[in-house]
């Protein structure tokens, strides 16, 4: 069974009497341990897809199974629990709280998971070690560089040991050298067995992932999987986006 199973999801919006189809009958699977990118131009539907996969939004129709749990009909409270336990997020603008230390920012997801204060510190330090920032634990976000802030955000995404991490334009607010270092960190985490999905509009960033899913006009337009001899393919209606 795939870690994420998406079947025939669509997302419709109604604006001024007009129906906007942000996603149109999308099907795909993501296996545990995969490193994939979801790529497409602005307005293609890629961010909508990430929001639905990340339980930040619900589809208008279709089904989603995450780690064996059907989520498309979950209540807001249930979705919040799934996000906290099973999903990590990394965003373009870091979203760190400026008044908290690096360690306290990484601890935040665990506050809602019932860990004791001592357990939170231990796990947060372990996550900071993964990204090479254990020596910055007492600093505040404005006292470290942009690349280091993004590493803190990655540590925060990993601290609850999620099943999958979604990174939405994670290098978009960084210079090219720092962005390459962040992508190298994602590669390293993938090699350690983490499941990571990068969302980007940049083909060069998408090229670092073994599997790339291109979204256009709310549909999967193309899939490239380097594990299959680099062949481009279009998904069939019956098999979703996977070979």
TrEMBL record:
InterPro entries: AAA+_ATPase, ABC_transporter-like_ATP-bd, ABC_transporter-like_CS, ABC_transpr_LolD-like, MacB-like_ATP-bd, P-loop_NTPase. The keyword Nucleotide-binding applies. One of its GO terms (cellular component) is plasma membrane. GO terms for molecular function: ATP binding; ATP hydrolysis activity; transmembrane transporter activity. It comes from the Bacteria. PROSITE patterns: ABC_TRANSPORTER_1 (PS00211), ABC_TRANSPORTER_2 (PS50893). Keywords: ATP-binding, Nucleotide-binding, Transport. Residues 4-243 form the ABC transporter domain. Belongs to the ABC transporter superfamily. Macrolide exporter (TC 3.A.1.122) family. PANTHER family: ABC TRANSPORTER ABCH.1, IMPORT ATP-BINDING PROTEIN. This is ABC transporter related-protein. The lineage of its organism: Bacteria, Pseudomonadati, Verrucomicrobiota, Pedosphaerae, Pedosphaerales.
């Amino acid at each position: 069974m795939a870690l994420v199973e998406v079947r025939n999801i669509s997302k419709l919006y109604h604006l001024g009497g007009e129906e906007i189809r942000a996603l149109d009958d999308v099907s795909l699977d993501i296996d545990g341990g995969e490193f994939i990118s979801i790529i497409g131009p602005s307005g293609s539907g890629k961010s909508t897809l990430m929001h639905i996969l990340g339980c930040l939004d619900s589809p208008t129709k279709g089904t989603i199974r995450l780690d064996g749990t059907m989520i498309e009909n979950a209540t807001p409270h249930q979705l919040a629990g799934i996000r906290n336990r099973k999903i990590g997020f990394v965003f373009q603008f870091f979203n760190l709280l400026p008044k908290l230390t690096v360690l306290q920012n990484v601890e935040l997801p665990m506050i809602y998971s019932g860990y004791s204060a001592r357990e939170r510190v231990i796990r947060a330090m372990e996550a900071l070690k993964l990204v090479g920032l254990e020596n910055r634990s007492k600093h505040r976000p404005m006292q470290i560089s942009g690349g280091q802030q993004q590493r803190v955000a990655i540590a925060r995404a990993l601290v609850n040991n999620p099943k999958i991490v979604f990174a939405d334009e994670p290098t978009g607010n960084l210079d090219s050298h720092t962005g390459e270092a962040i992508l190298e960190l994602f590669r390293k985490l993938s090699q350690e067995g983490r499941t990571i999905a990068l969302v980007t509009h940049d083909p060069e960033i998408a090229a670092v992932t073994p599997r790339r899913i291109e979204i256009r006009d709310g549909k999967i337009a193309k899939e490239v999987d380097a594990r299959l001899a680099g062949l481009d393919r279009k998904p069939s209606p019956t098999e979703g986006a996977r070979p």
